[in-house]
Amino acid sequence: MMKNLILLIIVSLYTIMFANGSLITDLGQVFMPINRKIPGGSPISTCDVQNDQILTMKYLHISPNPPERGANLTITASGILEEDVEEGAYVELEVHLGLIKLLSLTLDLCELLEDNKLSVSCPLEAARYKIEKVVEIPKQVPPGVYTVQARAYTEDGDEIVCLSGKTSFPPVVRRWKSIIRQIFTFQWW
Q1: Coil vs helix vs strand at 122
Q2: May I ask which residue range the UniProt record assigns to the signal sequence (predicted)?
Q3: Could you tell me if residue 17 is inside a domain?
Q4: For labeling, which of 1, 38, 137, 155 is most exposed (least CB within 10 Å)?
Q5: SS3 of 129-174
Q6: Which of 123, 135, 105 is nearest to 160 (CA)?
Q7: CB-based contact 7:30 (threshold 8 Å)
Q8: 117 phi and psi angles, rounded to 5 deg
Q9: How far apart are CA 151 and CA 93, in angstroms?
Q10: Average pLDDT over residues 72-82
Q11: pTM > 0.90
Q12: Domain count of the fold of the chain
């Protein structure tokens, strides 16, 4: 069951990031949380490691890495949930494109589990979990550097996990042949 919680958090990071660095506060200053790399080579790290968290990420791998427009992204993750998670748990999510905050949301974790049909529902039991999920990255992702941070909390406000990730999508470069064809087919008169 926890595998689906891990999946939800990771998929939420990538889905919102791709559907629609530094973290910037409302004052415009760079916010540098203490992060820890998660084994597996992905661009996602555990953040706020100075805080007690009840989900310990053991492995996280994405393929392709870095993610590509119009491609399927395979996410493989494992972790250990040390305590049960009850109704009322929530996720605070922020997405930035460069210095621009695209969105800041607070989402009900249990509703997310149900809405995304992850075959798990609250309450979540303490256990070790491993998941694999494939998500599609839209071709229309605008170019830029995307930074995403998701913090999940229990109904009592205890931190479940904090994950942050950063990736970039380069500008789409049209092929020279297409550009030359457009130049020479232009009507000059």
Answers
A1: coil
A2: 1-21
A3: no
A4: 155
A5: EEEEEEEECCCCCCCEEEEEEEEEECCCCCEEEEEEEEEEECCCCC
A6: 123
A7: no
A8: 50, 55
A9: 7
A10: 93
A11: no
A12: 1
